[in-house]
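Note on ligand handling. Small-molecule inputs were canonicalized before submission; formal charges were left as drawn, and no protonation-state enumeration was performed. Where a ligand contained multiple stereocentres, the stereochemistry in the source SMILES was retained. For S-adenosylmethionine, this procedure yielded the string shown in the input block below.
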Amino acid sequence: MEGAATENSVAAMAACYERFDPETFLQKFCSAEEIHLDREDGITRWELARLHGAFTEGDMRGERLLDVGSGPTLYQVMSACEVFNQVILTDFLEANRRELRLWLQNEGGSKMNWTPFLQHVCKLEGRRPSEWTDKATKLRQVVTDVLPIDVHRPHPLGPDAPGSLPFALADCVTSCFCLEGASPDLGAFNRALIHIVSLLRPGGHLLLMGNLGETYYLAGPGAKIPVVALSEAKICSALKESGCSLIRLEVFQRPSYDSKEHSDSEAKFFLKARKN
Ligand SMILES: C[S@@+](CC[C@H](N)C(=O)[O-])C[C@H]1O[C@@H](n2cnc3c(N)ncnc32)[C@H](O)[C@@H]1O
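Structure output:
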């Protein structure tokens, strides 16, 4: 009975995502007028700085990085592309995978302008913002695949895909704002974390970014997506269950200037952990 109830609630979440619209999502969460890169206390600045910090501490090495639930976004791998030779993006929705491919193909098919993000990450790396075109080229070189994924499956990429044995496991797994927005409840969130950690090699790093205390976000016309409201304690407990050891967990309170129109998130978290 419990298994059937879980399956139903996971299926209900998948149905919510049928209304997810990549264009609306990018406009609401990643457009130049929403990200406030000029503000010291900007959320996106905090996010990009956390990712930059995590990838430049000297302990992150290896061939392959897997980003889980990439959505239509690329900001989360702009620091990573300087460290890992192969970056694999993944998402549940073909519409998001298509948007990613359009940008990667660089044939003018994507309307999304990632330039402000690329420029800012160049600045974090001590490079001139004008070098953003080199970073865009690098990103397009190292992203080798955009794959379907379902974090609610024990083999999220499917049994025969890269990341599943006997293929090499990832040296690093990243996932931003995905698991809490893809799971119907805390139990499903915990299991989803275990599933994605199974794609990581022992000793490899897990980077997770997400929302604390969020119960919904808007991702398209009529697409109010329910979210599992997380706390630091819930995240730490899930991490322990997944077989990872926490290196650090950082929290950023949502600044008052940020409108609650698109989401009721209270704060952002970023964690770096290592698989035991
Ligand atoms: C809030 S968006 C985050 C996108 C991106 N990572 C970011 O940082 O903006 C949540 C993403 O989770 C994906 N998702 C939903 N259900 C999923 C599932 N069962 N497995 C994997 N990803 C899922 C959605 O398609 C969506 O792209």
